[in-house]
Every structure is written in structure tokens, then in C-alpha cells.
Amino acid sequence: MIDILIPTYNRKKDLIKNIYHLNNLIEKEGLEKYFNILVSDNCSSDGSFEELQKIKSNLKVNITLFQQNENIGLEKNAIFLLEKATSDFIMYIGDDDYLPSEYLSYVIDQIQKDKNVNVVIPGISALLSDGIVKTRVRLESFDEKKFKKGFKTALKTSYLGHQLSGILFRREGLYDKYTKNNNLRNIYPFIFFVAYNALHGKVCYVPKYRVLISQSNSKDWGYDDSGLLTEIFKNYKIIYPNSVLKRFLLCQYIMIKQRWRLRIGRNPFFAMKSFIHLLKSKNVDFLIKLLDVRLFRR
């Protein structure tokens, strides 16, 4: 079984649309016995939870609903669902992001054919407010690629966890390992989930299946001056608390793959702020600060 986890807050219209979309995909592809949906409403004020209760009986797929008594934040709400999950695999989906047809069938096929598959990562497209879909997002030269377990795979794939929707993870060990040090919890735990699983099993990356990522909705979080790199780096401290070199390599890779976070080559003022923010951070390794200097000087 796979538990689909949906943390939500004040997006009733998108959420209900998405639940019906998932239900229709699962029913159309005959996958009802493979999936559960778990939704945690983060104390929404727009009637999301009440609407979920109304439509529950209309669904073919099993759905379990949770409601927080207060807004506990995006990360805690997401990890709450991880703790509640019971299936061997989990898949997070943003409440306003939409899976493509046949992707769920592909996922089931992969984990049934190969018991060593730990992660499946889809591609993404941007869904604009006017309904236009931009497909030139995270373009790859291949439709499907499989990686063997190990550090090299964690290095090359973990950054893809920054966009959570549709990624399949093996659940075993994730909660205990991630929550062991509360000081390292962060807004991008899905990067840790990819890296951790990549060290223990195979990773399938299939950009031919593109999840629609909504671009127009406001978020209840924002970027800091480092583009949240200081948050991302915490994930690598969880995985490699005693290996500065491996942390450096992981951090280096994501800084190069996602240079936009540092605003390098875009706005000199904001690039300087990013540079200073990383240098001042106590959670950033010295080697990474040296790399930041090199990138900034280019």
C-alpha cells in the first residue's frame, strides 16, 4: 500500500478539486486497493475540513482526515502526516498540485517489479493562474533513469526533493531519523527523505511524467536571504553528522544546481545579501562558506 499525504491550509477550492482528481485517477486505473489518502488540515478558516467531511462518502479511495487545533506550521503538519502513515511507501502531494495520468500505475509497477526501489521522482511543469502549462521546467535529456543506491545517487538526486509533490518514498526509518535532532528540522525535509532513501535503495527519476505545480497561490512561508539554503543544509547534517566532506559535496551540488537561490548573475544587491547571510550563519560549514565566496566572485 501507498499512503498519499496531503498537508493543507486555507485552499478549500484547490484541495477539493485535487481530492476528486486523485480519486478519479485511482479509480480509472483500477488502483483502489493500493492507495490511501491522508489529509491534515492545519486549522484552516475557509471550511476546508467541513467540505472534506461532506465529500468523503463520494470517494472510491479510502481517505482519513485530521484537523489541527491550531496552525502548527507547514513542516510540522507534513511530519505529523508522516507519523500517522502506516504503509510501506508514502507520497506527498501539495494541495494545489496535480498528478499526471498513468504516473500512479507506473509507481506501482516499479515497486512490484523491484523490491529495492526506494524512491520514484516525477518531472514537473508549471501551472499558471490562467491555466497555461509551462513545460520548460527542469528539463532533462531522458524520459526515465534509474540510479543504484549509494552516496553518488544521493548527491545527484536529493536536490530534486525541493519540489515535494508526487515523489514516492519508502517510509521505514524516515520519521525517527529526521526528528532525532529538533534543531535540524527544516522546511525541506523531503530533500532528506530522498537522500536517506538513496543511500539504502534504488532511485527512479521519470521526468516524462510531469506533475502540475500551481504557481499563483500564496504560500504561508517565504525565502530568507540565502534562498533557504541554510534550511536545506540541515538535511545533510542529519544524514552525515560526522562527515564534513560528504556534507560539503552535497551542499556544493545543490548550490550549483540551484544557483537561483543565491541570486548570482541576477540582482547584485540580493546576491550580496545571500553571500553575507551564508557567511554569518552558524549552521553552515566553513567549507561551504569558502565555496560561497568562489561562486560570488564568478
Note down, in words, how this protein is organized.
- With 298 residues, the chain is of the alpha/beta class.
- The chain has two domains: 2-214, Spore Coat Polysaccharide Biosynthesis Protein SpsA, Chain A, CATH 3.90.550.10; 229-297, no CATH class.
- It contains eleven helices and ten strands.
- Strands 1, 2, 3, 4, 5, 6, 7, 8, 9 and 10 form a ten-stranded mixed β-sheet that branches.
- Strand 1, helix 1 and strand 2 (35-41) form a beta-alpha-beta unit.
- The radius of gyration is 19 Å and the shape is globular.
- The mean pLDDT is 92.
Ranges where pLDDT stays below 50 over 5 or more residues in a row are none
- The proportion of residues in beta strands is 15-25%
Largest sheet: 10 strands, mixed
Order of helices and strands: EHEHEHEEHEEEHEHHEHHHH
Question: Which bin fits the share of residues in helices?
Answer: 40-55%
Helical stretch tally = 11
Which CATH first-tier class of the largest domain would you pick?
Answer: Alpha Beta
Rounded to an integer, what's the Rg over CA atoms?
19 Å
- By DSSP, the count of extended strands is 10
Q: End-to-end distance, in Å?
A: 49 Å
What structural class do the secondary elements suggest? alpha/beta
Q: What would CATH call the homologous superfamily of the largest domain?
A: Spore Coat Polysaccharide Biosynthesis Protein SpsA, Chain A
CATH fold-level topology of the largest domain: Spore Coat Polysaccharide Biosynthesis Protein SpsA, Chain A
Please state the overall shape, judged from the principal axes of the Cα atoms. globular
Tally of separate domains = 2
